[in-house]
Amino acid sequence: MTITRSNPDGLHATPGYHHVTVVSAGRTAHLAGQCPLDPAGGLVGPDDLGRQVDQVVANTLVALGSVGAGPEQVIRTVIYVASADRSDLADVWQRLTSSPLAAAFGTASTLVGVTQLGYPGQLVELDVTAALPD
Fold first, then answer.
1. Burial level of 126, CB count in 10 A (0-12/13-18/19+)?
2. pTM: predicted TM-score of the whole model, two decimal places
3. Cα–Cα distance between 47 and 82 in angstroms, integer?
4. For 126, how many CA atoms within 13 A lie in the half-sphere containing its CB?
5. What is the pairing mode between strands 124-132 and 27-30?
6. Which stretch of DSSP H or E encloses residue 63?
């Protein structure tokens, strides 16, 4: 499996992600949106964006590991933050790109502020697609 990431000429510079990710034919894993829930299903850190990001990272690493993948095999991320405050979005990006999942965000990534997420008090959710070895 080959993963190629690029930033084509004519597109703006990015803060670490790539505009285009191409994967040779093979298997992919599409993770459900990873939420800031602990193993018992309880919301971690209501109103604490940092704690929620950390739980989302931990959950994503478990989900990726279950299919034999790690952050380096991630080919697409979409980050949802329940906030209209750009500084909250920037804080989430910074925390994710400084986490053990950091390599996942060097690929095609989208960061979106939304009105609300699925659980009361939920502030962040992460959607991930990974390329798996044949």
1. buried
2. 0.86
3. 11
4. 33
5. antiparallel
6. helix 49-65
Instruction: Summarize pLDDT for 40-88 with one digit per residue, the tens.
Output: 999 999 989 999 999 999 999 999 999 899 999 999 999 999 999 999 9
| Dist CA 45 CA 34 (whole Å) | 15
Confidence of residue 13 (pLDDT cuts 50, 70, 90): confident
Question: The CATH number of the domain where 75 resides is what?
Answer: 3.30.1330.40
Query: Tokens 């850190």 identify what position?
Result: 45
Has residue 118 got a pLDDT over 80? yes
Q: How far apart are CA 97 and CA 104, in angstroms?
A: 8
Amino acid, single-letter form, for residue 24: S
| Nearest in space to 36 (alpha carbons), one of 48, 18, 28, 27 | 48
Percent helix, strand and coil across the chain, each to the nearest 5: 30, 30, 45
Q: Distance between CA atoms of 106 and 71, rounded to whole angstroms?
A: 10
DSSP state, residue 43 = B
**What string of DSSP letters covers 86-109?**
HHHHHHHHHHHHTSTTGGGGGSEE
Instruction: Give the number of domains in the chain.
Output: 1
Which domain covers residue 26, as residue numbers?
3-132
